[in-house]
Amino acid sequence: MNESCNHSHSAWPPWVSPLTLAYTSTLLLLGLVLNSLALWVLCCRLPRWTETRVYMVNLAAADLCLLCALPFLLHSLRHRDSDMLLCDLSQSIYLLNRYMSISLIMAIAVDRYLAVRHPLWARGLRSPRQAVAVCAVLWLVVGGSLAARWALDVQEGGFCFTTHTRQHTTMVFSLLGFYLPLAVLVFCTLQVVAGLARRPVADSAEVEATQKATRMVWANLAVFVVCFLPLHVVLTVFFAVVLQSCAWKHMLTFSLHLTARLSDANCCLDAICYYYMAKEFQEARAVAPRLKAPKNQDSVCMTLS
Fold it and tell me: Could you tell me if residue 3 is inside a domain?
């Protein structure tokens, strides 16, 4: 971006700073409580480890790390002459855990898709140990891509958001890190919903369990799209359009700030959504022994676990 344009927070409407402070404080309080509680329940209170439990532990940990980095990141954005090391570190933790959350949501969707549409394959592909391996690979891939982005950003003017050097080379990492998981998530959601709709039902209890599973799948997709799509649409405009007007650059920078804060809300919504997913799983397990068909019993449990 042209450095002659003023992108500082002082050029934004006066209501932005107090609203951002109130929003971020509420988000931090809720997010830290909800994700800490989720980790405690997942690690200490559930009777056995399942694939979804492994993914949810990693998701809660990623959301907690992002929330812990958020205040330092916002401080660096506001005080542009502050410690660059703090800016680099906070942004690295923030981006790592944002795209790790996105990747884990995609992994949960793929796991659910295999359980519903390919139950025979799922028996061999789904296990807690394999879920641990998938999470380890995702951490390595996301961390490696972030390291590559950091190296390129340092060569092109700086890694921190405060430099405003939104280089096309490094922005590709952010866009691919969202649009590829989005495509996978949409595909898996549609396939799971279609599979649930075609499933024969044995009694009213199974009908209710299937309906709850369908609503949960749609809710997960809706939360993902609402939280992350606006931010990446703005990033896509940054990537695709060369703007000469300072007014347009200012508007996009302001939009980037608002949509980034919206994406932060995913840290709270993840914990709520996957709490209900686990709750419906427990209900489905209670219903399953009463089902007449063993095949349906397995499939209902696998759908929600």
Answer: no
